[in-house]
Model the fold of this input.
Amino acid sequence: MTALEIKDLNHYYVKGKNVLNDVNLELEEGEILSILGPSGCGKTTLLRIIAGLEKETGGSILMKDQIISDHFHTVLTENRDVGLVVQERALFPHLTIINNVMFGVSGSKTERHSTAMRLLKLFRVDRYAYNYPNEISSGEQQRVAIARAMAPNPKILLMDEPFGTLDQSLTNQLRVETRKILKDNNITAIIVSHDFDDALSMSDKVIVIEDGTVIQSGSAKDITHISREKSVEFSSIKANT
Amino acid sequence: MKLTFWEITPITLFVIFIAPVALVLYSLTGDYSDNWTHLYEFVLTGYIINTVYLVTGVSILVSIIGVGTAWLITNYNFSGKNIFEWALILPLAVPPYILAYTFTGLFDTFGTANNLIRDVFDLGREFTFFPKVRNVPGAIIVFSFTLYPYVYLVSRMAFINQSRTMLEAGRTLGLNKFETFYKLGVPMIRPAIIGGLMLVIMETISDFGAVDHFAISTFTTGIFRTWYGMYDIETAKQLASLLLIFAVTLILIERYSRRNASYSNAMSLYKPLFLTKLKGIPNTLAFLICFTPIFIGFLLPVMELLYWALNYKLDFFNEKFITTAWNTFYLALIAAFLCSILAVIINFSIRYKSNNYLKVMSSFLTVGYAVPGLILAIGVMQMLTYFDQSFISEFSNFILTGSVMGLVLAYVIKSYALSSSTIEAGYQRINSRVDDVARTLKTSGWALLAQVHLPLLKTSFLTSMLLVVSEVIKELPATLILRPFNFDTLAVYTYIYAAEERMYDAAAPSIAIVMVGLIPIIILTRMIRTSRPASRD
Done:
């Protein structure tokens, strides 16, 4: 079943200067898609539009064959059933780890607690359940952030530069762990990154965006073959920013 | 477009808050009396120059004291630090007019301080040791040492929330401790400092008691003289309108200068600061830097007031006094709670709806702070009278004019800027991505406010309460005009004696104002200390 379909999506902040041009994509249930591109290419804007945090200026978005946003109507973020993980983690600093993960889960307190504990165990951070976010490392915070986003069982998990602030060995470890958990739980996910390795190691599909336009799309293997040059370009942009 | 609660509330408040001010501004469209020729030819330039001198001097001194002490308290351990941490707020309990009265009592030619020097050194009556204080520099000192806590409080709150990692990055890039302070620490909290400074400036330009006592011609003394001396309320309202335009210009300049300054901390990356222990000369210097403002702004006036009070029979602890103190206290608490909750709702609406119109409207809600209390009271009274005559009298015998509700409304309009500025500074420290994530977790509107923002704004909310309580307890002119019949506050007591230069008589109620003002300051300071994020380190 198609988990997400985006048709002819356009977006601008200043009329005449599009940040996204005619973006089309389809994502099957359980698939992991990476949106790859240099800083400022429009990939985060695309993610925010899918989450409903910004309204597109043209085109439509469908989730499981239901229109969630088009010219005529928009489903609010809180009703879209999406999970969001951001680079800054954005854990609620006044809540313990367990309460952070329980935050978006519905049901009785016992059910919410058991769901949260299950996810914390899955990400191997259950021993910090009653600590506060500032008492654990950044890698552990990122695990908690992903667990929190997965806890309400969203239709799609959106991840914006999820490993952007972590060191290389931790990033490698988390990529493997996160992909395994997403696949084991059949979770559809979109990962926005400017890191080619993120896309390669985590996703089934990749699209490459440049200046708001999708310039390549296909399976991770295809993109690996085609975009070595692009990868070098992104790396040099990354190094210069 | 369908309007929700988050749009309707700011619009409604805008109308209620602006109406009294608009009624004052409306005077500009009326006739201009011959008194304007006199004002223009002889006194207006003096009003403007003195006001500008005063605002500039107070801004510089308040920034140095407020930011400097906040940095020391947040980053260093030194003798008396734990006491200074809360004691630096004490001058908030002393209104500028009371410090002005005690300053003249201390430093006038035959004041307590000069008499003491003459007695100790056995000097003649013609000898005067301390310079005269009834001038602009004297007023700058009076305002600075009573108002610096506004800048201290917001700077301290911002410094507490500064992450250790950012400051450590500065040190590794070659900055010494002082450079870390003025090149990193201060620029990072610039929005908070400017917010606190705006409150100080507005308080300074709208004060009447202190400048009048020092016989300095400023806009406010001009307004009062035009009203009471020339009996020309229309010209007084027109002068007040000019002051109002000046205040609005200041607000717009402040907004413009802060337009790109959203220095929010990524809260999850927050690491509490480590305190450096000071020894020897640095320890003594830090002690003196923190002790001096407390001594001048609090200890000195309180000692002088006690000295006066002890020369006068202390019979004010009667039933009337207790009723007056209770009136003052409960009015202050109601106004403080209303101001703080409204400031949270308005600032949340702006953030939640990302609406520039709401942002502009919110700026105008703070204008009441710059309007002299007496002028605001006239505006509120005109508005309430209109409501009473047009709507309420149709249905009941109750009238708003002369009721406690009218008084609370005036306090809320007058003090809203204090709450708004504090809550806004609090919101700037909450990363906007926290909202994005919360919304994907099905939390929006009231739930987002109650479950995410309010717990994170606890410190700001308490600070806002503290500032408004302290402000309302000291408020005088609006209370005099709007209070219900036979309803007194402590400030009214003090005013009646001080206006007649009966300072020995004014001493006792002045001490009571300071003491009542101290209670919420102490309670809320303790709560702020235990609620800050760094308390878990």
Notes: Confidence is low (pLDDT under 50) at residues 533-537 of chain B. The beta strands of chain B are 76-77, 276-277. The radius of gyration of chain B is 24 Å. The CA atoms of residues 402 and 485 of chain B lie 7 Å apart.
